[in-house]
């Protein structure tokens, strides 16, 4: 959990409908690579913890007998269920819970995935609890966007301007204050790293690592860039309260200054995977 920050259920309030179309996609082929690495067998089950709108759950579901997505945010789960129906995924179910207080009777899993969610949790507690739910040799998997800057800022081959990230962050600071917000609290010290030590303390051995290269150019509409802003905990819709519409007008003005045609292009980040095996 971030230092000096207390979790509350407003963390992603209002973000869910924007999340899947706002966030950069994970690297192409991620689900197949994960499935081969884990690997799944007949009857294997998946637990996707902090599943959001099913970003990892849905592409992994065809590889397992059952996928269980867990998230405390009811909006995220409603969106996950809606997207499952659209995608024709019938073997996923959705459980509203914090990872720290998983309900009894979930059963055992071949793998537990955490897509950019572990840093919001009481990691020591969750690692220990999830270890008990994994089959021997089962996989504890962290998936994240690579944090390092991409190799080619200001890429001359992009067909449209890049979203003005710095100006957007500046506008969010202007409206919400200089210290990043998250739920009802402030993220004074960012979000934690050091996952290897947390997993080691829970009895997992050293991780296997995989970095999957991003897909090609990512073209986005103005609406999709706005959706990216709403998808972030630090600028989730609830944080603006009644000023949400006024903020959106300014945000769109900023975007139109950069791209009057309302088209942006970018290169999504690589995807990083770290996988620990349960000793049983
Ligand atoms: C950044 S989103 C990630 C969504 C998806 N897993 C992905 O890969 O894009 C983080 C998700 O973690 C969930 N989350 C935050 N704190 C949590 C906790 N303590 N237990 C379970 N899920 C949590 C949030 O509700 C949110 O849906």
Automatic annotation (TrEMBL):
Coiled coil: none annotated. Residues 47-138 form the Methyltransferase domain. It comes from uncultured Thermomicrobiales bacterium. Keywords: Methyltransferase, Transferase. The lineage of its organism: Bacteria, Pseudomonadati, Thermomicrobiota, Thermomicrobia, Thermomicrobiales. This is SAM-dependent methyltransferase. It comes from the Bacteria. The keyword Acetylation does not apply. One of its GO terms (molecular function) is methyltransferase activity. GO terms for biological process: methylation.
């Amino acid at each position: 959990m971030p230092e000096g920050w207390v979790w509350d259920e407003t963390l992603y309030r209002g973000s869910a409908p924007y999340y899947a179309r706002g966030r950069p996609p994970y690297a192409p082929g991620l689900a197949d690579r994960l499935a081969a690495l884990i690997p799944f067998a007949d009857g294997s089950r998946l637990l996707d913890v902090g599943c959001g709108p099913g970003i990892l759950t849905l592409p992994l579901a065809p590889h397992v007998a059952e996928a269980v997505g867990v998230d405390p945010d009811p909006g995220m789960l409603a969106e996950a269920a809606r997207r499952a129906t659209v995608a024709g995924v019938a073997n996923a179910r959705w459980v509203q819970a914090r990872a720290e207080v998983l309900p009894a009777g979930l059963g055992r899993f071949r793998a537990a995935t955490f897509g950019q969610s572990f840093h919001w949790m009481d990691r020591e507690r969750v690692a220990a609890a999830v270890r008990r739910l994994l089959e021997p040799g089962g996989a504890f998997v962290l998936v994240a966007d690579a944090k390092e800057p991409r190799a080619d800022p200001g890429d001359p081959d992009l067909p449209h301007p890049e979203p003005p990230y710095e100006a957007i962050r500046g506008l969010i600071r202007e409206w919400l204050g200089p210290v990043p917000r998250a739920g009802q609290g402030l993220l004074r010290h960012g979000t934690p790293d050091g996952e290897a030590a947390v997993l080691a303390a829970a009895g997992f051995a050293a991780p296997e690592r995989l970095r999957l290269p991003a897909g090609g150019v990512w073209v986005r509409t103005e609406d999709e860039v706005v959706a990216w802003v709403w998808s972030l905990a630090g600028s989730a819709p609830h944080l603006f309260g009644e000023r949400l519409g006024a903020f959106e007008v300014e945000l769109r003005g900023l975007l139109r200054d950069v791209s009057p045609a309302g088209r942006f292009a970018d290169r999504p980040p690589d995807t990083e995977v770290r996988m620990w095996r349960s000793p049983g």
